[in-house]
Structure formats: C-alpha cells, structure tokens
C-alpha cells in the first residue's frame, strides 16, 4: 500500500517547527529518521494530514559532556552513537545497543530522538535510557522542560510529549568511577525486534558493594519497563551469585510479556532471567576495569 496524501513541511528552525505543530494540531507528525512512521503510513496505521520534517533544523545533532552530564541532540543518528569515543568511554552500553538496531542503512538515518519519541516498548533505547537514569528535554512554545525517563512512557505508543512539543535533547548523568553498563537482546534474526532485551548499569564500590543499579527491559511489557525490585535486590549488598539470581528472578516475575511469533510468555520470562544475569555480570566486569 501507499500512504494517503499529506502536506509536507520542512522548517528551517525549531521555532518554525513548533509553530507548524500548533497550526496543524493533532493531524501533524514529526519526521526525523522515519523508520517507524513511514512503514505505518504505508499500511495506513498512521494517516497524518501533515509531515513536519525536522532534519534541516541546525543544532539538534551532537554528543557533548557538559555540567556533569552527557547531552545528546535528538537528531543524532544511530551511527554517530555507535562511533562516538565519548560514549564508548563513559557508556559502553551504547555500542552494545546500536550495533543490534536493524541494519547499517537504518542506523545511518535513524535518530535517538525518534526512537524514544515513538514510545515503542520494542525499541532498544527506552530500556537503555532507564538503566542510565536519563532525562528527556522537550521544547515547545514556552521553551524547554525536563522529563525524567520514568515519567516519559505512560501507555502503548504514548509518551509525555505534549501538544506542540518536540523532543530535542537527552541528558544522562555521568556516573562515578567503578561504573559499567551493558545491553543485549535476544532476536530471531539480525536486526529483528527483541524477543527480550535487558540493559544494566552498575556502580561498584572498592569493597565490592553495589552502590547504584539501573535495569531496563525491552519488549516484555506494554511500556518500556524499569525492573525496580531487581535494582533494589542489588543495591547496598555485595555483588554475589545469590543477589544476581534474586534480581533475575524478580525481573522475570515483574515483566508482562505476551505470547506471539517470537515466543510464549513462559519462554520470554525465562529469557529475561537469563539476560539479567548475563548483563549484570558484563556490567560488573566493565565496572571493575
């Protein structure tokens, strides 16, 4: 199928894009990479009256360290995340995640902002952002506002972005020394959506105690999910096989996968437990380095 007819707009400034959003109202969609939106339009699952292409707006693609945070512009491409030495040094989890996203053609155009704004629990970045305790910056007519990642996803393909707002930046606190992070997903074939995926960030003290933990789950819940009880099972304790097993068990219990072509509910819960164990070990190894 082909999309229904629509008005194409290509603003040159963020202010102009926001103005167009208000002009078209709920009938407008933002276009960045387009790898989720365009297929939905072809199938007519999405039928926007207008597409507002923000790719020509300058100043929305960057990776920089500032004020104790890593700041990533919403138009930063997946390939730039994959190749960034800054991210590789501080957050190795980005290379883990980006190399598993689709294929090189998609990664050359797909953006981190679009990945998050789409609100899909099957996308990889939401779980990563939860593990890293990121903050989303949304900009509207009244200026920017910050949204904690735990308040950003609240329904099936639904986010906290309000009418007239555009996701413009992601902010991630730079963790202390002794921190490691890792992500992996089980997939049926290269580039597929996850059967299950797990993102972990751990901070270990010199005494081996877990000082901080972040665990995000991919595609095993209607919305992107933080494994809060699993984090609590680790924090304040020595990292041991017993605490890791407990964290894995809790994540498997707390997620809510549905049976589909990628596997049964029971299988997905089992895979969550396996991946939580593996990613905790991998994040801990990186933390010790």
Automatic annotation (TrEMBL):
This is Carbon monoxide dehydrogenase. Keywords: FAD, Flavoprotein, Oxidoreductase. InterPro entries: CO_DH_flav_C, CO_DH_flav_C_dom_sf, Diverse_Substr_Oxidored, FAD-bd_PCMH, FAD-bd_PCMH-like_sf, FAD-bd_PCMH_sub1, FAD-bd_PCMH_sub2, Mopterin_DH_FAD-bd. It comes from Flavihumibacter stibioxidans. PANTHER family: XANTHINE DEHYDROGENASE SUBUNIT C-RELATED. It comes from the Bacteria. Residues 1-177 form the FAD-binding PCMH-type domain.
């Amino acid at each position: 199928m082909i999309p229904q007819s629509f008005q194409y707009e290509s603003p040159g400034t963020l202010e102009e894009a926001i103005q167009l959003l208000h002009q078209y109202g709920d009938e407008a969609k933002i276009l960045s990479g387009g790898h989720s939106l365009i297929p939905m339009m072809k199938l007519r699952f999405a039928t926007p009256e207008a597409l507002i292409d923000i790719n020509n707006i300058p100043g929305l693609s960057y990776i920089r360290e500032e004020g104790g945070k890593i700041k990533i512009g919403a138009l930063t491409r997946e390939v730039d995340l994959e190749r960034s030495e800054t991210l590789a040094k501080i957050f190795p989890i980005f290379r883990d995640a980006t190399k598993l996203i689709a294929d090189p053609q998609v990664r050359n155009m797909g953006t981190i902002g679009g990945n998050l704004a789409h609100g899909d629990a099957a996308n990889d970045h939401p779980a990563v952002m939860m593990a890293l305790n990121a903050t989303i910056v949304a900009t509207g007519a009244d200026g920017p506002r910050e949204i904690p990642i735990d308040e950003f996803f609240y329904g099936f393909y639904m986010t906290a972005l309000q009418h007239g707002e555009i996701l413009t930046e992601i902010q991630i606190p730079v963790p202390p020394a002794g921190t490691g992070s890792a992500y992996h997903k089980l997939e049926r074939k290269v580039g597929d959506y996850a059967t299950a995926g797990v993102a972990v960030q751990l901070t270990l003290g010199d005494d081996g105690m877990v000082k901080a933990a972040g665990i995000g789950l991919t595609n095993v819940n209607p919305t992107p999910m933080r494994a809060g009880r699993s984090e609590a099972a680790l924090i304040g304790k020595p990292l041991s096989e017993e605490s890791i097993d407990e964290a894995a068990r809790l994540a498997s219990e707390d997620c809510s996968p549905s049976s589909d072509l990628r596997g049964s509910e029971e299988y997905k819960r089992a895979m969550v437990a396996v991946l939580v164990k593996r990613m905790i070990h991998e994040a801990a190894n990186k933390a010790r380095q």
